[in-house]
Amino acid sequence: MSWVFLRDLLSGVNKYSTGTGRIWIAVVFMFRLLVYVAAAENIWKHEHGEFECNIKQPGCENVCFDHFFPVSHIRLWALQLIMVSTPSLLVVFHVAYRENREKHHNQKLYKNPGKIDGGLLCTYLISLILKTGLEIVFLVLFYKLYNGFTIPRLVKCDIKPCPNTVDCYISKPTEKMIFLYFLVATSCLCIVLNLSELSYLIFKYSIKCYLKRHVKKQQ
Q: Connexin N-terminal domain location, by residue (predicted)?
């Protein structure tokens, strides 16, 4: 899978982000995207073929694998990366709208089209809320689908067409669990960064509004 579009998106958003936003982009690019492409994808590459049960009953192994892994960890991680990065497009589109508006009117309408203020501030805040919400949704989804953030070495399966309870073994469970913990840790870090940036922008805007009102009262 090519991740060039996501890299380009993050590079474009970086121009219109705050300091905390740039840290978030660095975390997503270096500790999530690069780790996914360089290492994690290969660990889960043959997870179905390396899933073994101690019985050769036709269909049993496939049914057991589907029961314990309804969605591949790595595909869900890829979907999470795409979804949490997509809200940043709102900011890019809003800046593009400002620039096109200036071209259409052939005059300077904004001090800086990429400056986070006015309508762009609202768009930026919405993108932060969406990113935080999606991170939380995917963490809950991971937890619900796999009954926690652990990967057992052995699972017992008694689903038809298995004739009885059979033991099934997951390949490289320790290595997979380390990457799963890394995924959860980076997701939590991104949530903290998004909430910090959201709080900072709201606080900064509130102070700015308060000072404007105070100045008007003094005048």
A: 42-75
pTM strictly above 0.90: no
Q: Domain limits of the chain? A: 15-217
> What's phi and psi for 166, nearest 5 deg?
-120, 155
Instruction: Name the 3-class secondary structure at 49.
Output: coil
Q: Examine residue 161 and say whether the peptide bond preceding it is cis (omega within 30 degrees of 0).
A: yes
Instruction: Identify the three-state secondary structure at position 199.
Output: helix
CATH number for the segment(s) 15-217: 1.20.1440.80
Q: How many CA atoms lie within 13 A of 77 on its CB side?
A: 26
**DSSP string computed for 121-176:** HHHHHHHHHHHHHHHHHHHHHHHHHTTSS---SEEEE--TT-SS-EEEE-SSHHHH
Task: Return all residues near 193 (Cβ < 8 A) that are at least 6 apart.
Answer: 20, 23, 24, 27
The tokens of 167 are what?
Answer: 């033991």
- Buried b or exposed e, range 183-208, using 16+ CB within 10 angstroms: beebbebbbebbeebbeebeeeeeee
Please tell me the distance from the alpha carbon of residue 100 to that of residue 123, in angstroms, as a whole number: 17
- Per-residue model confidence as pLDDT tens digits over 109-144: 677 666 777 788 888 899 999 999 999 999 999 888
